[in-house]
Write a structure and sequence with these properties.
By secondary structure, the chain is mostly helical. The protein has 44 helices and no strands. The chain is elongated. It comes from Zymoseptoria tritici ST99CH_1A5.
Amino acid sequence: MATSKLMKKDLADPRVQAVLDCANTARTILQDRSTLPTALFAQIESYVKQSLPHLKSAAIADKCRDFDLVGIDLWNYSAHLLHEDGPRDPRIKVVNEVHSGVVTRVFALLLLAAAHAVSSRHNTDDPGQKIRIMKVALRASRLCLDREELELASISLQRCSDFIPVESAEDVPLIRIANNHTKDQECSHDDFGALVNEYYLLRLLHSWKSDRLDLADHFYSKISQRADCAEADMTVKQADLMYEVARSLAKTGQSDIAVKWFERAIATLDRCDAQSVTQDVEELRLCTGVAFVELLVSDERDVSHQRAWEILEQLEATHGLYNRVAVQATRFRILAAQRQIDEELILQSLLRIVKMTVLTESSFKTAMKVLRQASKVASSSSLTALAELIHTRLLPELRDTHEKDSTIQCWLEKATVAYILCAKSPASTPQEISVVGIRELLDRIKSEIPALCFTGKATHAAQTLIWQAATGPNTGEWLHLLRHPVFDNAGHLNKARVGRKLMRHAMDHEDFSAAREAFFQMPKSTQDESITRYLAFKLALQSQDDELAMDSLKVVARKADNDPTYLYACVIEAQKSSMRHMGVAALQAIVGKRPQGVNLTALLRCTARLLMTELDEPGQNLDEVALQVIEIFENAFRSVDELRKLSKDSWRTEVQWWSKNAYNLGVRLCTDIRPESTVRLLETCTSFMDNYPMEEAADLEIDIETRRMLCAYLATTALVALGRSGSEDDEYTLQGYLHAQKHIKTFKQLHAKLRRTMHGDTAVQHEQRHFSVLKFELECILRLRQWHNLEVALQACLNSNIDEHWDTLADIVIIIHDQLDTHSLGSETDTLIRDVLQRAVDHCWKAQYDIVKIARWLRFAFTLCLDHIQDDFSYKLLLQAATIAEKARSPDQPSQDLYPDAELQWLATTGFNHAVDLIAVENHTEATKWMEGALELARWVMDEGALHALFTEKRRLADERAANTRG
């Protein structure tokens, strides 16, 4: 038998030693404030949950002291695990330190409990040792419950239960004999009783957290049966625990069970001795009562509401609680939960809250929470109370503060925002009353503290609420509230949004002055935002304000590099308005920007069409519109490289469209717009035609070349007209003539190329234009004094087969001859001038031109030939003048077509004098011829033959002298 016992003891020793070795290893590690390795922690956790609680006392009898010492050390050394926040080596794999600390302390408790159970020195009947272990067990249990380690808490509480005796009536002596030992036992008994009470509380807490409400009820009954649980401290602990249980049950919807625990909490508080009531007890009573009432009022049963009133009356009857804001807030909640809302009672309750509230952060939050809740059931009462809070509490407090109190101002701002929120809610008073109330409130705030402006955050909140309310018939009044002076701290972004909202509203109601005011009151930086300027452009269109429209369009265009959306919108708005010229300006702005992705060809065409439509509008300044048209056409030509990227058919279509429209406009407007504009338009047309894909349209070549020639003709005409409009030495005028020569050259080249392809009236028409161009060329030579080109130009005129319009050519030639200096004159030039004049006289006489002009040209040609000793030609001119004069005297000619007498007299006299000169040089044959010609011409002078008689007498005398000389 002895051998068997020894063998069992030897078998048990390894388990005990393993526990000690594990504990000693953990103690060594924790003593250095290190973390338990994972493997060691797993071993400790295994001992706690499995092995150690089941070791028999006999197995550890020899090791009880070691168990006690290592248990104490582990308890103390594990403290740092529960509060360790310092960094650790990441290479070492460790477990959660707080969890390991809890497990280690439970391990230490089990070691101490095991040692206490078997120690021969630690008698289990020793109250001091029992209390010691009991306290450790309760601390471990509380730690586990605080860390939600319910399984470990159960193990710890199980150790506590080992020390709880089963009480019976026989255990209590009838008469206690007073001695020192008995007194010590009574003292220890009282201490142990307090620990037992705490044990039952922890048991109740564990049952609640484990969702074992049946066990919680059991331990509540245990607590209720103990007479020593009525002490103030224990009562507070019990009531606080029951309050937490009830509140958690209420949150999870277990209302009926929560009511039971609330009742238990209140009953527990009611057991407190009035003399031992502390501030903590009163606070707990208030919290419990308020939470209980909230639960009761959520129940629609009358009995629950009745019980809520009873709880409230108890709170109000409690000394020191009647004037608490929370109590009055509770009263409001009961009133608000009634089927029939009594707004008068609610208002009284709210005003009492406003009056009682001590201006602290927590009380202000409570008051604001109640007032916000009141707005849902009695909005008018809530508005009145909020206004009272602002007027009687916050404003005086802030005004009397010598320095700006940011806290009070923050409360004022929150109250004001709450007022606005309540006023704009659908359940509040009508909108017009709400707007008036808000305005009056803001005005009063500003009047009492003029320097006060809401912070940016409060301003944003208030303006957001007002913005949301700005709908319906009172939108304008709501929007004007957004610009109240108390909101001056609004950022530029918000001010811009408000301004734009006001502009839209005013424009929708055709209040253009209000819209302009809203725009110009905005900060300059926000005025120049694209969206703001778009609205300003729209306003300008509606109010017919060209200046504002153009300024706004320029700003929008300047900012359209990244996003041309608003520029496109301006085009659309302008096209819908009566100010279509602004649409043109907007399109031109887009053309100038050429934003990415825009269809350039469509954009240019659209702009051009719109501008050409403007040309047809009555009262338009054609010059101004034409300039805009020309700019678009020139812009289109500058984009020719981009247009070339189109398909061949599209490219040909574009060239045709632009060239034909430029040509048609040039022909149509050449007489109505300034010459410079005509030239620019025609040159643009020519530029497009120069880029026409001729290789694919050879059949159109003649038509295109004909148009180019006509463009050159019209451009020359316009440039010559421009030159004639300036002074003779003006540089701009001379540049016009130089420019005209380029087009003259082009015309002559094209005319030479196309003249063989023209027939009939078309050929005559083009020859007439060619003759006009030749005259323009002579005019350019004259004004530019390019005498070296004169002979070629004169010869070209003589080569023309045109029979008309030689009168202007004759005038030009006469002027040219007057301007020629002696160095520029030559026999060839004189001959060409004479021939031109002669031909002009011939054609004009046949065409029955003004005989006065013909007489002048004859005189000039006669003088020119006579000066250059071309007697034969001069004599022919003399006879031609006589023939013309004779024909003019025929009966079938009107009197106004008679040859001018002065011209006849001058020609006759000059011719007769020339004959005298010939006699002097003894050229009697020529002299006789010239005298006869002069007499023939004098015969047609309307002086009743006086000049003819004079010449006859002088001829007789001349003949006599000649005879005498020969004799």
